[in-house]
Design a protein that fits this description.
Helix content: 25-40%
Largest sheet: 3 strands, mixed
Number of strands: 7
Strand content: 15-25%
Strand order of the largest sheet: 2-6-7
Number of domains: 1
Radius of gyration: 19 Å
Order of helices and strands: HEEEEEHEEHH
Distance between the termini: 34 Å
Number of helices: 4
């Protein structure tokens, strides 16, 4: 039995279902050893039938990736707020603010810690 078929068997044994998703289909992408682009839906939210019955509007939303090659998932248990995915845009007024250099330096000096170390 392959690892993937064993994983699928565990999901079946536990009665877990792949939840609906909103956003682009693929949650991961990278390059093959030959240099071609590859992508897939590796990241999923799973739930059982009771969860689906309690949260009929539930869906996992594929967010914009930031520091990883995987897109984070955000599970909504009711309809999400309007607006959808929005890219962050840095404006001139923010850059011209007197505290911008200090805030910017502080932010980037704290970025060495990977997400996997966060609790």
């Amino acid at each position: 039995m392959t690892r993937m078929s064993a994983f699928k068997q565990v999901l079946d044994d536990c009665g877990l279902l792949d939840s609906d998703f909103v956003g682009r289909r693929f949650t991961w992408w990278g390059k093959s050893r030959y240099g071609s682009l590859i992508h897939g839906r590796l990241d999923r939210a799973v739930c059982n039938a009771v969860w689906l019955d309690l949260f009929k509007e539930e869906a996992d939303h594929h967010q914009i990736r930031t520091m990883s090659d995987h897109k984070p998932l955000l599970v909504y248990t009711q309809p999400p707020p309007p607006g959808g995915e929005k890219l962050f845009r840095l404006g001139k007024c923010q850059v011209d603010h007197a505290d911008f250099p200090i805030i910017n330096q502080s932010f980037w000096s704290n970025q060495a810690k990977p997400f996997s170390d966060c609790t």
